[in-house]
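[Q] Does anyone have a clean structure-token version of this?
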Amino acid sequence: MLASVPAAACRFKRLSDRPRALRAQSFSLRVFLSENTSLTGPHHGYPRPQLQRSDWTSLNGRWRFRFDEHDCLGCPADVKDWPLEIVVPYPPESSASGIGDRGFHKSCWYQRDFTCKPGRSRVILHFGAVDYSARVWINGQLAVTHEGGHTPFSADITEMLNADGQQVLTVRAEDDPHDLTKPRGKQDWQLEPHSIWYPRTTGIWQTVWLERVNPVHIAKIRWTPRLEGFQIGLEARIFGDTGDDASLELELRHGDRLLAKDRYRVVDGEVDRYVVLSDPGIDDFRNELLWSPERPTLLEAKLRLWIKGEMVDEVASYTALRSANVLRDRFMLNGRPYVLRMVLDQGYWPETLLAAPSDEALKRDVELAKAMGFNGVRKHQKIEDPRYLYWADKLGLLVWEEMPSAYRFTRGAIQRTIREWTEAIDRDYSHPCIIVWVPFNESWGVPELPSVQAHRHAVEALYHLTKTLDQTRAVIGNDGWESSATDIIGIHDYDSNLEHIRQRYGPEVEPEKLFDRRRPGGRVLTLDGYPHQGQPIMLSEFGGIAFQGRSEAGVKKIWGYTEIADAETFAQVYEALMDTIVNTALFSGFCYTQFADTFQEANGLLYADRTPKIPLERVRKVTSRSRTYIPGGV
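[A] Here you go.
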């Protein structure tokens, strides 16, 4: 981990006028929080794992806060009082924030003071995510606006800083709780969470941070592995006037072994190169350099920007050598058929909602998925914090990334989805753990796919746009049913009757009959004009076995597809169901619902606080069981 910016450069002031009610309030959290909370907030790790600098500071911690009940405050000067205090980056609906207000609020305001003296370097202000739209001021000057609740944005605030070093940062977040045309994922539009929807997340929910950079600096890097030829693609974008004598130095290592050290000329602010590694030829030696869940080999990178013999910027990064693609009816990892054993993960925590309690909590979620025998997760209706992807990269866990849905079909909804989805792909393109992109889920936001051409065109457009932005990964246009443009056909089927499952998907079932006659959830699996063309078939949602086992705070009535009364029955039903699915040759992968209980939805393998319902080793034993019906099956 890179060190934070020296205290002399940026120092944050305590908020002295704390409301009496909040002074008396205890911020007691059960998981991961208490020992890590300070003036700069709980430890969330470096917010941008694949482009790290040493000169940075977290702005997480205690901020002044207020709701804008009548949505009438337009600029910081309009805000006359700050009755509340909030712990950033936890949303005000969460208990960890110190607010815990889950009512309907269209907009809210944040403010804090900090000390940051101007210098020769530029000061960049970053936001990991603010739901849904944000306006940001420094010392009363508008610095940046952004729309999209799941993607990052930043601003160069150098010219707005006061000379004496005393600065004021103000944020207005707008998030209409009733607007169903914005991508909102599982955030409920009703006052109380119902069915499969959960409490809303408003405002700041990922790290706010500062970094100092040279006026000419590395603004962006992007890695593209090409297994054929043992190559790593590097795209770098340089901000500022480089003149005619600038070069970018790349140092690539695997542990202590130097793999490459090259320097490339910067032309028009860009460097685009493929680095050819020495191919050992023999598979045993090749495998040492390949990334997979079983062997998550990361290649460490250092990039240095040189201008006229002077190094003006240095960043740390990492990449990996791996391929993820589809070949006929199988998913392929590093050129070999690979059975995906995934679990659906919604990324909610009881005390912090969509925001992670800490970096340790994100790491623990990756470790728990692997401990239960899964080699991947389907991040459901959430663009996850980059720190989760970092731990998935480092520890070895595959990820399907899925766009949070809007729920009404309008031109505005599609425009919003396209903009935010494009930003998400741009942010996460270089993570080796990501193997599949999913723009739509279960026809949410496009409910008339079988009959309305515009809805079909939206799915097909997002599919092709995603393939244009990333030619290296598989794309599922609409996961669950009503497939059209897709590289993988995902099926959602929550039938708990094992005989029904065998009859639908057993060895005697021909794929064409499956798609002509079967309608899990009452939906056709493929749209007219899009027959099965040999793509892999995956059971991408199944299970949903609800077992509560203990009372949970705030949960009055549990919800699930099948309810079980005791732990031993729960374990036996899981084992029988998983054994059936693992040994169904038709499926090239599966995704069990779900990783952990999420509010009223009690169908997790873990409780909401990540306590196992049954021993992890018992889950792992059946989840990772070898196939018996496929010769050489994984």
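[Q] Thanks! Anything notable?
[A] The chain has a mean pLDDT of 89.
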